[in-house]
Each structure stands twice: as structure tokens, then as C-alpha cells.
Design brief:
The complex is a heterodimer of chains A (about 110) and B (about 110). Chain A is mainly β and about 110 residues long. Chain A is built from no helices and 11 strands. In chain A, strands 2, 4, 5, 9, 10 and 11 form a 6-stranded mixed β-sheet that branches. In chain A, strands 1-3-8-7-6 form a 5-stranded antiparallel β-sheet, with no helix packed on it. The radius of gyration of chain B is 13 Å and the shape is globular. The relative contact order of chain B is 0.34. Classes of the chains: A mainly beta (about 110), B mainly beta (about 110).
Chain lengths: ~110, ~110
């Protein structure tokens, strides 16, 4: 929604990795944020990227390509508790309002 | 962990009734945002404040909602006349300035019968 698209679902296996993709086509761009949201809970901030390239934050890494309108969140060494929805949100220059995708529900299986 | 407090967690109203929810931002965060997350997980920005001043709001908010962030009191968002389509999770977020990250509260889940 709102020009920010994510796949609905993603499945992976404990101990491996998962890549959550996000594409955007919004007018105005002031960076992109990733949030984790569990059912019935608040979105939890994970990462913010505004420059192209890979940003390694350990368990979570994020990549951005502004020319392609593309970002991904990479989770490594997956644990069962990483099962959650992952939200991609583009920041607009006007007062940094966030425009969210509908989230990708990640299921990590044993 | 976010320290944004939202009350009540759950709110049930009949159509046409007022629905009011409150938010206490994190200490030291003068910028407050309200978003609506519907059952399809679609987010919609509603309004934001810096201290007591409205920065930006969408048309729907201006017409149907009443919102404020008074000094030394919780921020509030009130739907003047609830409609079935207003059933959603209302999320409040705060940040230390306009350029900083937004941290979310747990939300108020509104059900309009």
C-alpha cells in the first residue's frame, strides 16, 4: 500500500537466513525504516537506511538501492522467535511521515 | 523497548458514538504521530504534532477527528462520530525530533459495532 510493496508471506528454517524484500515507488524519499511487529504488539524499530549499500547490524542487516527503489532486510542465524511480521516504511521529507508496506509475515520452522 | 504509553488498549463503541484514545510519548520526545492500522495491516498516517502544534494531518482527520497534545497532559485522538470503517488499531509514535526514528506504543484497538 501507499507505493510500498512487500510479499505477504515468507517461510524459512531455523539456523538459516531469510531475506525480506521491499520495493517502493513513492514521490519524495528521506530514508527507509524496518520494523518488527508481533501479533497484538507495537511495531519495534530495527533499522534505518538512507544511503545505498549494505548496513550490517549483526542479526539484522539491511540493503538499499535508491535507483531501483528496493530494500531488503536480511535475518541470519534464524531462531523460532524471529517469526513475526516485518514492516518496511519509507520516510517522506515532509515531517518524516512513514509510509508503510503491509508487512511480510515470516514463519521460521524447526 | 519503547516507552510510549497508550490507553485504553481496547475500546468498543457503537456507531455514532465518540471514541477517545490517549498517548503519553516517551520522555523527551516532543514529536508525536498517530497512525491507523486496519485489519489488512495497511497503515494510514492521521496527524502529527510537535509539542502542541499540529504539523500535518490528512483530510479525514481534519473533518472527523479531534486531536491535541496539550502541555503536561497526554496527547489524545478522538473520533467525533464512529463508523464501522473506523475499526482498527490506532498507533501512537514519538520521536526526539522531526528527523529521528519513531518509536511506537502498543496501540488502542477500536471496535465499532
Amino acid at each position: 500500500g501507499q507505493g510500498v510493496e512487500q510479499p505477504d508471506n515468507l517461510m524459512s528454517v531455523e539456523g538459516t537466513f531469510a531475506r525480506v524484500n521491499c520495493t517502493y515507488s513513492t514521490s519524495g524519499f528521506n530514508g527507509l525504516s524496518w520494523y518488527q511487529q508481533r501479533e497484538g504488539h507495537a511495531p519495534v524499530f530495527l533499522s534505518y537506511v538512507v544511503l545505498d549499500g549494505l548496513k550490517d547490524s549483526g542479526h539484522f542487516s539491511t540493503f538499499l538501492s535508491r535507483s531501483n527503489g528496493y530494500s531488503y532486510l536480511l535475518l541470519t542465524e534464524l531462531q523460532i522467535k524471529d517469526s513475526a511480521s516485518y514492516l518496511c516504511a519509507v520516510r517522506k521529507p515532509n515531517y518524516n511521515v512513514l509510509y508503510f508496506g503491509s508487512g511480510t509475515k515470516l514463519t521460521v520452522e524447526p | 523497548n519503547s516507552k510510549v504509553i497508550q490507553t485504553p488498549r481496547y475500546l468498543v463503541k457503537g456507531q455514532g458514538q465518540k471514541a477517545k484514545m490517549r498517548c503519553i510519548p516517551e520522555k523527551g520526545h516532543p514529536v508525536v504521530f498517530w497512525y491507523q492500522q486496519n485489519k489488512n495491516n495497511e497503515f494510514k498516517f492521521l496527524i502529527n504534532f510537535q509539542n502542541q502544534e499540529v504539523l500535518q494531518q490528512i483530510d479525514m482527520t481534519e473533518k472527523r477527528f479531534s486531536a491535541e497534545c496539550p502541555s503536561n497532559s497526554p496527547c489524545s485522538l478522538e473520533i467525533q462520530s464512529s463508523e464501522a470503517g473506523d475499526s482498527a488499531l490506532y498507533l501512537c509514535a514519538s520521536s526526539r525530533d522531526r528527523a529521528a526514528e519513531q518509536f511506537f506504543g502498543p496501540g488502542t484497538r477500536l471496535t465499532v459495532l
